[in-house]
């Protein structure tokens, strides 16, 4: 049975046909404007920049990666790393010399400490940056330093805001100076850099000078002044739009940097922003965390730190009392522990590094690059047309075929003065240059940035934080989502609802009377010591506060119900070695040393996946605390308990222990491994984690949209199957392998076998992070665009490998978040589906804008070219074309690129990677509207005097009325066509229009400005006032575009993209494609 969706887009089919070669094509493509969505090589990025036709490089490349700055950043990083290593090497020599002397360690001198503290910022910073161990000993080690900083190592600093504020003032905030965002004036300056606008301004100045000289200041300044004024308006509007976009990106970047972490204050674990961290704070660290500031190791077990971000070396460093210094910006690779914050912000090496490199938010997306390719193609066509128009108009002008409105010839050889001739030539040049302005869509690639900025801001409200721009659009192409179960499809609100202790069911699970105190004591010891969570019991009574992961919280809550007093239970034994929970082994363990009076030297406690822990047991403890042998029958009985709980969608956890008669010495502990066999089973519990309320509808919506949802979980396959049936991911409870498969089974297959079955897999249970990575790779080789959810550190490779990595905001580690492209802030699968909608919306909005812009382009170009060839005059002059360009570029992008997503988007198939930007539907709509506009307006251009009953008017006035009418009708056609562009494939173009206030506002402003231009700014735009009848005719012609669009949409279009027909006609193109494939 194959459960893959029947919906497949043409682009997706092309990817499937290429098979594994789809990914190779990302690396070696012949198209300069085709880049991979992730980790594009620098050569590819350089190539498309060189191939693009660009009139304003500073604006066009503003939101792309600055390759030169990236190289500078890397150089600065290397310098700071080298500096740090030199200092440390010198200190090692110094320490070696000091050890030979018998004197006490030296405390470095510094400024007097701030009031209330025994140490100053300068001394702390020097010690932290230099990793000065002798200075730390001079302060009395970490305990002495904590006393100087007035910190309780167990309870942290107080929660008093005044104390926190004083520490921030005395030792600095945990922020670093960042380069200020660019001001509005910078954007204004960049908008000036457009080559065509510079030519127009130059032409306007010349026209102004010559006009004033020939016609006097009263009349002669209009032509040049109008053009200059129009260009200034275009520049200001462009700058305002770009500046607003920039502010949106700045706000989103602030959100990205605002990491929340746990600190211990007043004995409680609380979450604070990384910016609120202060010197003296005690920070608990666990695997996957980011070290938020420089600090000193207090206590911990198996704490391994990845310092590659600071040292450039990829090896992990073990931290303990002998190597206690932790550096900000590094990651916890393994283990857990607590650290005392000793330096923050700019006083850390990480702060220095971040302050030294200006943050460049540039990142080109595949769609942006493809649009640059489209803009280049259109630009070349427009440039060619403009040159032809220029030549034709100049030739006509100088051979005497161009006439004034009164019928007189404009240029007579030997009679016309040089000033008049130059002025006439400049007017022709401005028309040709304005055609280039309209024809080269500089705003097209920037429309992607606009729609992405809008989408990212709105996605925040939908609980999704976009870390990488391109992920936003790639999500629209997603064909499959590999989702975790816990916390994504379920609520992550775990409670223990079933327990088997002493070989029998305990009902309720916290009924301590069902088993002896000896069993209870061992269970509580294992729960209290083998945990990364904590229990806070307020001194004066009140609600017990439990912190940790949802699993840890559920177990600790159960322990409290069993009568556990957390601090007391932990004080009765001391931890000597820890094996942190490992998603590969699915279990975690701890060795404890007991008090001498207990009669036993120590215990090893294990907890983890029930069937895995059970497999390591040789005996079990009965309800009276007597050890019994684990016979095959008893093993089957326990397995039956596990299967029954899994069938009820419970997560099964087992607890086991083993007595230790011989404890390893201090020296032996570093390399000692916890015994994993010959364990004694204590208990098996079942945790209930209910499905999220709307998850079934979300999964159904994905399936309907052609996106296959697969569950990849570390849980028991039976538990996974039950939840998958509940969520609607799995339809058939009797589904065979490989629809239901265990991670190990999949892992043990060859690459070819994995590729063969990957698309059939719906649920993978007992999977390790590596199994998830193998599945992602297999699906990508089959041409799928894969989205993956993950929360653990070990999920990082899969998140990085996937086309879209989705990290969980609540339970995700910082390492997982850093490897991801989008962070799902509420961990809810419904939010993942919203991201899919937004991804499709980005693509759809860009296509709407392309359709609208190309319609304007084609119509304006054809009308002006035909008119220029036939009469030597163009009906749309420079100022009018600049106004059309403003409607088409900036206002059009704002109106169409910010359309909110609709449910209709989920009725389509995923957008294929290589699906053409201009689809057959768009070509049809575009040609219908452009043909209509061109036909109508050219008819009016050549026969307008008769049709509009202007025969009795003077020729000059009649021509002005006719040209004003053509200009007015052309603009109104665009306004009405803007509605058509909203819904390229729907008959009702008005659905949801009232909810898009920005669209209505822009259309309204455009219409009002058009009335003002025609009725009141005739001197500037060379127009005359139109009577109400002509206004009605203009409006009627514009309104016709609506029923015409409906009729056009009834015309069927072929499935094969038009581009492929052209390819088949071009033998060279076909050969090249064959070579690539």
Automatic annotation (TrEMBL):
One GO MF term: metal ion binding
Membrane topology reported for the UniProt record: Multi-pass membrane protein
Biased composition (Pro residues): 105-115
Composition skew (Basic and acidic residues), residue ranges: 13-26
Enzyme class, first EC level, given as a word: translocase
Domain Cation-transporting P-type ATPase N-terminal as annotated: residue spans: 132-212
SUPFAM superfamilies per the UniProt record, alphabetical: Calcium ATPase, transduction domain A, Calcium ATPase, transmembrane domain M, HAD-like, Metal cation-transporting ATPase, ATP-binding domain N
GO annotations of cellular component type: endomembrane system; plasma membrane
Enzyme Commission code: 7.2.2.10
Name of this protein: Calcium-transporting ATPase
Organism for this UniProt entry: Canna indica (Indian-shot)
